[in-house]
Queue: 3 jobs
Job 1
Amino acid sequence: MSSAISPAPCIHRIMIMHKAQQRRRPPFFDPQKKSPNGKAFIDSHLSTTWRKALGSLPLPSTPMANSEDSRRQPVHLLLVPLPAQGHLIPLLDLACHLSNRFAAAGAALSLTVLVTPANLPLLDSFFSAVPSARPLALPLPAHPSLPAGVEHVRDLPAQISTATLVRALSLLSPDVLRWARSHPHPPSAILSDFFLGWTNRLAADLAVPRLVFYSSGAFAVSIVDHVWQRMPRREDGDGPAALTVLCDLPSSPVFPFDHLPGVWRRFRAGDPDWEVMREGFLANATGSWGAAINTFDALEGPFLAHLKRAYPRVWAVGPISPAGPAVGRGGRSSIPVEEVAAWLDACPPRSVVYACFGSQYTPTEKQGRALAAALEWSGARFVWAAGGDGAVVPEGFEGRVAGRGLVVRGWAPQVQILNHGAVGAFVTHCGWNSVLEAAAAGVTLLAWPMGADQFVNARLLVEELGVAVRVGEGVEGTPEPDDLARVMVEAVAEGAWPEMRVRATELGRAAAEAVAEGGSSYRALEQMAKELSEAAYVEMK
């Protein structure tokens, strides 16, 4: 489209196209229609046409703060989170920051969160902090493999995959469509988790943009997109250490096959649940209007540049900070945050090892014993976030380490712990939220990845950024306790690892600069809000 064409005719043209598509949409998007090969028919024509039209449109130059239509009718964003703490919390935080950015510009953002009843209490603090947000609580449709009442990833039985829950969530589409089409101000865009690529079809049915939110980093996103599109195979006779070259990515990284993202390695062709997952991941890269990623330029610049060649829009908006009080965000803790802070206050600077394997992963007995023994034998001060009921903590352990160690059961105040000057090292599973929180705090890491995207994150930390030391790999790579204890002692020794500590401190400074006014992530969030407002303006015109 020529840049010489004035905005008004372009807007008129896009709405004529939109109305014509609306007239033919009911038969065209019949959810029961089948393609010749028997798979569910998922047509991307409307979403692709809409995306291309918006992407090439010379949008109005009127800022959202000065748009009469924007003031009269706020942008309405439908949030569709994956019910898992590591996905849900950063998405809600991003929505809160977006709402604040709209308000600062003199505009309004209305938020609706799709949620099932069992997960509604998890959103209480969000709704308290964001008055413009409302829940859309819909019962989770029945699934033959999903036990009744299971609506959160952490509650899935060991033999049930996340793909099963994702497919059950996808069955909410007809109810969401009915709600949206009867709403006096239906959603003008959808922002959904990257596990929920089925929302691309939902957005197409509503003729609105779909923005994908990545709670993982740009390196991991690049690899996830690559493996779903290329489907590399482990050849017959290859063992778990067989190497896979990701030739399309910057520097062509090489990984053992078993270190590629777990959500892809568990794929089972022909399984209805996994086919929904596969189609969704493919739709993320090929059909989304834009991608918001919880990372920042100084952390993953080359991989962000790679993704910007694949997605129409990429906003690196991290590290996404807690939009409200961080205390109690993940549930109850066995030790109040004030007591943890007081205990750390009594410790010398950089003398404490913090150990945590995240909110979703439960260490095996072997891993728990190895970590406990290393903490005990090291003689170092420590805080161990043992999660859940702390079942991995050996009997009598707390008595033997009394005075120099804390064991926190339940939810640990991780952000506050990592930002305390007494903490010198972090034993981590390398989940992305933990990586970002450690990066923002400028803390060195002892990397022990377990699964998911964690091997990818560990490589970024150890080999690309030089702010971590690898101490273990999954269950098979559980370190010997005396080896782990030795590394712990080194990590908190005065004057140890000077170059690594400098790099970690510089990374923390870069993280702070990214989200400060004028920083790369600050500007990206502002651009995201502006483009959302403009897209809604185009639709209203």
Note: The longest strand covers residues 109-115.
Job 2
Amino acid sequence: MKTKTKTKMAGQAQSLPENVKGPTQEERSESGDHSSSYPRQQHPPAPAAQDWMPAWFGGPHVVVGPRIGRVLGSAFEGGSDTEESSSAAVILDKQIALEDGHAIQYRTCSWQKTAALLFSEYICLAIMSFPWSYSVLGLVPGLILTFVVAIIVLYTSLVLWEFCLRHPEVRDVCDIGQMLFWNKKWAWYATAVMFLLNNTFIQALHVLVGAKYLNTMTDADDNVACRTVSFSIVVTLICWVCSLPRTFSMLSKIGTASAIFTFISVLLATVFAGVQTHPAGYDLLAIGDPVVTALPVAGTTFVAAMNAFLNISYTFIGQITLPSFIAEMKDPRDFPKALWACTAAEMAVFSVVGAVVYAYTGNQYVTAPAFGSLADGVHKKVAFSFMVPTLVFVGVLYASVSARFVFFRLFRNAPHHKNEHTLVGWAAWAAILLATWILAFIIAEVIPFFSSLLSLMSSLFDSFFGFIFWGVAYFRMRTADGRMAFVKDRSVSGYLLGVVNVLIILTGVFFLTAGSYASVEGIIDEFRAGTVGSTFTCKTNGL
């Protein structure tokens, strides 16, 4: 039997015979298993000098490593937990076969469509808060942290991808949480709570920001009753309708338009900030000309600096959705192509927009989002208007991920409703989405210090979904490979990657502790300053 050199994910090197193959077509037919053939690797192994390429950039030369545990029946239609020896190729074959011939097929995303989903998730309104972060941290530390966080998130996303390749039955991060912590059911429930709360709070954020946009556009109209609540209801209904497409393949088309409009929006805001005579609120005598500092200004508190750093980090951290995206790819081995394209765009857009807008607004006049720094009302409204598709779509994306979590489990043993256009299937899908949006609306309107609470929730949840999970995943996979890279691999890369993943886990702990502390202090400061709003407020929240 031919052997293949196991591609090392993020640096490990290990030879592993491919001794588990899926059944032949004839064997599948005789046994009643009509699985289609997933594109198996029939080519010779890549040259040794190129072994690192598939590990970092994906493609057909990727060889999937061993599982860390048994197949979770809860994550795979029609079966109970099966033996650990089930290969990834066999599971993928079965998944594709189960969808074959159905009207609604989920594993249909190319890497280009997945890239569109990533672009629409990451290239969003949060970009316009980078100038404020740079004003607190100083331009040089701000830019350095932007690139450092981007590289860390890129690496952990590649670890996540490798885990999903080894366990193609997982549909979301909740399944991964259970598998990482030795198939304990409490881990699944704990992850599910964090998963749903995180997504619903992000939906609520977009309800509020949508209302902020409508308030900004209609600031001269006094005929709207209870403005912010009314506009929040409108945004909630629009988002619910836009959430109805069932597959990521369909959503990716909307996501492409969303990313394009967002790029236009930030480009216009950057240009307008540069051509305007003075930023909004300019007062030469009282405040002076805009001041740009390379380092933090004297007196910057830990809480302020931490909140600015967290603002940068949370914009990059989005791994919570990646397992759901990978689960609907035709060939998950191509995922890194989408990831690299998105990361390169993030690093360029975030740093350029943040630095340029900050350079023209300075420490005194910068706002978050930076649209508020534009002195010309027309410029502000035009630039903000191009952000509308993203204001809707990012919330839609998280709603769809949450709805999948419920929907796929609800109809796990009723594939007809899941894969066909049935009244029951569509009614359940629409109802689940509506429930998430109603809950998001209530959260946005009931919690008077919502923005600060969102920062606290992000500190609690992103510490796991952005860092801790993937450091643990690295060591679990290395153990499954038959060795612990940090201890037994005497190569420089083995030691280095072991240390890196320990630091990633510690970074998650830092977010969980210091990040939570800074967020709580921010809430306390709001109460002290008397800036906490009221529930279901009618007062405008426009820029």
Note: The longest helix spans residues 492-529.
Job 3
Amino acid sequence: MKKGFLNTDKAKRKLDTEIVPNSPRDEPKSAKKSKGKEKAQPKSPTDADADHTYRTPIDLHSVPRQLLKKMGYSESEKKRMVFRTWPRDPSGKSLVENAIRGKRAGNGLDLWGATLYDFYHVRRVPDLAGFITISTGSKLAAEMKDFSELDAAKDEFAWAEQEEFPRELPAWDPGEATTCYESRVQGGYFDAFSSRKEVREKAAKSNTVWTTPGPYQLAEEHRPSEDEDNEMDTASESSESEAEEDSEKPAEAPKLDVPVDSPFHSIHYPSPWPLIPFENPFPLYSLQRSIPLHLLPKKLRVHDPWNLLSVDGDPEHDSAASWTSKKDIVRTCILSLSPESQKAANEAAKAAAEIEDAEVMINEAVMILPQEEEGPTEEPAVLAVLPQRPRKLTEIPEAHLYISPQGKLGEGHHSVVYKAEWELPRDLFCESAICKTCVDEKVRGETKRMKESGEWEQQLREAQKARGTPDGDSGEDPSAMDVDPSGSESPKKKKVGTTNPAMVTPPVVTVREPKLIQKLRYEGPTITTHPDVKYQNTSYPETICEHRRFHERPVPRTAMFEVAAKLSMPGDEHLAREARNYLDFPPHFFQHWNGYNVVPPLRDPTPLGALVPQFNGYYVPRTRAKREYRSPILLIEDCGQPVDPDKLCEDDRQECAALLFRFHHAGWLHESFAARNIVVQEGLPTTYPLERMVKPTLSFRLIDFGRSRQYSHSSARMSEEREGQKLFRLHPYAS
């Protein structure tokens, strides 16, 4: 079978004429017999239209349209089911439970397939028609090889060999999200929401920027203050009268003592930053990629002008007020982890620091070839060794959180959830880079200096001598380098080539999802230089060179993201238990994977998005006020709004139920399963935001784990499993 067969006319005719095709590669015999006659006949417009339809690539993630039509489904209702059949040898062995496994994603479930075409109905007993089970191509191929049953399903074997392997799909890069948002700010789109009065007034006179739906008060820029009792380490340091006063109104306290080298210092916010929280009608990007446990901020400064952390207060009466019209109250909260998680975080931080110590000592290098075209050259290549890169962050001492009643997402018996703006060090997501133009200029200058001083000829003679093959009749060059023209190379091999003269060979191009990688192979002498260049970062304007200064203007040393902040009602312990559960969840709960699982008791494949929101830390107040309750904060990914099962198609209802069933298969009970605890948003977190607008695929997540627990016996999940089937009207409760 040839690769790409599914895109041929034969495959498409088969898919359009068979209800349950044995293979997407088969062609009806009648088509083969009449092939020559069809070519001789002139095509009518109808034939041309049909031929045009056949050229459309097959969607491997949807059931063929003709099959859906014959089964009575519309494309909007049903796109996912098992529709292929794996042929069996009538004299073959029976399929029984065994240790043979197919490809698996991170959750370890047995039935995984990269596409819908990788799932099959198969006879357990070859000559018993009614004994059908569901399996996958990779599992069946392994089992049939073990049975030596190779001839009955040759096409299916070939298809299984081409199947993609399971892989984790990262959510959209928060570094790219940061730079995209910064570009919009620098374009002046959000000047009306700047905390700088002069910027807002200038924007108000312009008709080129958006404004908020309603008026808001203009206030002079000011730094927030910290509650007096929060600045003290113990409650005994304040008197009872001071605590009572603090609980009634914000205290007049000194300004925050922020060191100059902190990314949150005011001098590191170029105009028009900082923006007023919750004023911009165009929301921040949601943080959808997990932060490693050891990189969660140790301290959280919570900006809470409405005193929402008291929870039992009533901010609704002035919830529409502007942020600038309120006196900012800043609470300090500390990251709280279980002893086991804290130990794991400490070990991870230590390991990350050791790895960073080692990697930062390895200088990257850029190979500058003597020519771009193929062929011999008398000039050697130049290996430009770059300076040490800046260290990556291995811990985050502090972050800031902004919370407002305007961002209220929901309220329950035990908690209230707000949409919050989370400010983190930008260096956590955006790395410094080297200007290639600077490297070229410095190398040219260094080359000129070396040639004038005679050092160039000396190094060239040493390089040719080190090759050890002056006659050029040696074999493979042990020091030849594959050079990536788009990036830098690590100078692990410092020897020179062995061919004479030097050769630049044609590009070697390999395709790897999702980008094209091109490498040129160079064999010949190299001369090493150390150009005096520096790494550049727009958060540090002094590092930006003249080549990039016009296009890359200064940005803050912080990045803002949207998260969900969950607060607890007074005296309730559900939030603390939920935080512990998040820490105990297996990693695959938070991961997005390619492909599909058939999750029992479901019979159709469902996608493998993350099961739960990303966990961003559990923070408790540093001190307790004597007269006022202050809630701890659970920071998680904002994953949308609760679902309405009556408005979901069958595929979506199955996907929602699969979240619960996957939760069960990992050994967990939810104990509070309801429609309100499954949320939905448009667009997959693993795709670019523009793609989410063009292809608004729904993404679902299970939430609210304050009562969840692990179980040891499978019978414990049966009741909750029935609840899920009833809620989403699935077999045997389908309406």
Note: Residues 339-359 form the longest helix (21 residues).
